[in-house]
Amino acid sequence: MRAVLLLFSFCLILSMRVEAQQSPAPVQQPASTTQPSTVPPSQTATEPVPVPEPSEKALAYYRSGNVLWVVETMWGLLIPALFLFTGLSARIRAWAQRFGKKWFFVISLYFLIFSTLTFVLDLPLDYYAGYVREHAYELSTQTFGKWSSDTLKGLLVGLVIGVLFLWAPYLLLRKSPRRWWLYTGLLAIPFLLVMILIQPIWIAPLFNKFEPMKDKALEASILRLAERAGIEGGRVFEVNKSEDTKRVNAYVAGLGATKRIVLWDTAIAKLDESELLFVMGHEMGHYVLGHIWKLLFFYSILIIAALYAVHRTAGWLINRYKHRFGFDQLADIASLPLLMLLLSIYSFLVMPIALAYSRHIEHEADRFGLEITQSNHAAATAFVKLQTENLAVPRPGLLFKLWREGHPTLGDRVDFCNNYRPWEKNEPLVYGPLFRDVK
Ligand SMILES: [Zn+2]
């Protein structure tokens, strides 16, 4: 699956990221203990909420997660290198030429074979990371059947997207060997727009059921908040993620007519109303502040820069190793593992920049959520629940923060919730002018 996603690797990974980063960090739920709420807000609303120390289990999840991340990152480089240096990629291309004949079919056939092979090679690691480990830490509720069908559907979606779009960069490589990186980077923008647009209506529903909210009283409170945020009605959906996980989440997806806020049913079950309203305030911040557009613009620049770096290095590598690779041009579809390998390396290098920008946007969404709800205490307890119930480490190491954190650390978020109260000092709100009066 990783390999399939690595097709246009940057583009797809980043398009997933747009969505993933629109949401607060996932939360693990306690088996039965700490039920939602605590002390009435009126008594404690001004007291700071302390950041708890991480549990032993959380530290174990964090440490083993770091090891797993290193293994997955190395694996993601090893597999395409294997296809290249053994000449396997060239052999697959030769086979695709024999059966495909026409250029478009050769590209599609090559892609189908290559993706299926990498899918199989990645499967043990994906099974461990996505199923075994999540169950071992009691984060997952997924049956093996659901995991398998989701994984296969993911493969099929990747294959369809690849066949539909992979010919474009290869056509550009052939027609414009000197400027293909720029044209491909520019084409990635409409490609990402289409992906973001169709994701909530055609892709996400393949995996889960999306419905209007069941709790009508809660829905009314959320819609009242949405109206104050200037969001037109009915754009809130509930999704049955409890079938897959105990984690809690919410996110913004789509563009224009497909734009919506999605609340996982696990969040509705586990957070109390004021905590949920803050989470929704945060998501509404992403929605109203146009964060999807900002991320798209910012990442497009990174994509073009990474493609330029690929352009500058790929030719040199091909010259040096063409006999082992079995091809002598980047426009040859057998170069796909080389493109993936180089894109993985450059996306790794620019990752800290991409994540720093994401953390900035998340911080602004937190500010928006606090300003519109003014529920500092509920916001802070929501983040503490994310931490304690999700095995999260509130103040992770610097390398973790730089390469893996798309959100401010939970410790920083709780601190901010405790301290950010401009309305108490009669200072102007940063996003106040965006709020509407609602009767
Ligand atoms: Zn967010």
Structural commentary:
This protein has 439 residues and is mainly alpha-helical. Helix content is 67%, strand content 4%. The protein has 17 helices and four strands. It has helices at 2-5, 9-20, 41-44, 56-85, 88-100, 103-136, 144-165, 167-175, 180-207, 216-228, 265-270, 273-288, 291-325, 336-373, 376-389, 398-404, 410-419, and strands at 210-212, 236-239, 250-253, 260-264. Strands 1-2-4-3 form a four-stranded mixed β-sheet, with helices on both faces. α2 crosses α9, α14 (336-373) crosses α16 and α15 packs antiparallel against α17 (410-419). The longest helix is centred in the C-terminal third of the chain and has 38 residues, at 336-373. Residues 1-43 have low confidence and may be disordered. Residues 22-24, 282, 286, 362, 365 line the site of zinc ion.
> Number of helical runs?
17
Largest sheet: 4 strands, mixed
* Strand-residue proportion: under 5%
- Estimate the global geometry from the Cα principal axes: elongated
Order of helices and strands: HHHHHHHHHEHEEEHHHHHHH
Give the cofactors and ligands. Answer: zinc ion
Q: Percent helix among the residues?
A: 55-70%
Uncertain residue segments: 1-43
Q: Structural class of the helices, strands and pairings?
A: mainly alpha
Instruction: Please tally the β strands and state the result.
Output: 4
